[in-house]
């Protein structure tokens, strides 16, 4: 272990912040991890469908750049996570494959979808040719469902479906496992219940909380606050332009009958996910019914989502979601009421929402680590990019 004696502050204890803290601690840094909630890993990293993105979702970026970046991080997710945690991580995965279904009103025509999938197949082939491990131990990377399979599973407005090697995580197990690893690391101090307002870079890097208290000094500070990142940068006098925040909810629902054999994502444009989580419960989310809000005014930071959640009609969203999946999956019957909601905020560079085919939400290439002197602002992009970015962070900070 290299012992530098440097003290690093990380603002935001989501998956990226926690994995970054572990990586830095194991390099001999002392890490102070700031989290506004009372505990770590209790927000967006836990409340999502758990998809390890390999680029399939991003067919509306016709350049292919988003698919390539997502594939590069996603294909290494398991390997990077196991290395960071220094342990096997198979228990964190619910599924190794999922189904992408194309409805007749998809924003991406079937012929364009096929070209997109060919591009991803090429990325996987290049990955294998360079000595990389296959995305799955069994089955092809992409397989188109037969007409008989399609008719047995979907309504007749679904024109095609593809069985792909894109894994799905159990986010509760993942977050619990990473949280345990953080607490076991002696070089990490957790400062919970501390809402950070700003990060001062000069004369020495200092964290300023919402009550005006100063914490530090530190050798470097990493702003990994996810939905609060742009507001903290803005309050600190650094550029944080072009971001948007979305609130999105999903639900854990009892499946009375017709549980899909594998997770299903309906794409592209307006979309939805159904992910089996146990024998009789699944995660379900349908856009735009489960869209809680969209804003480009990100100065309120993480407080924006809290305000949106207070007024959002979760009951109506679930019923709309239930109706949408019942139309597309005729064999499916969901319980009248959800067992739980799984809501969180999503940060991206965009000026419009998903219904716009030209929205920046369809193109995710500008995430990553952005240094400003001794402050590093990090936009994770997607959960599946967190292990790779955490490893990069340990090299830089």
TrEMBL record:
Cell inner membrane keyword on record: no
Protein name, UniProt field: Glycine/D-amino acid oxidase-like deaminating enzyme
This protein's UniProt keywords: Oxidoreductase
Domain of life according to the entry: Bacteria
Gene source species: Rhodobium gokarnense
UniProt entry tagged with the keyword Oxidoreductase: yes
Pfam families: DAO
Domain FAD dependent oxidoreductase, first and last residues per copy: 8-395
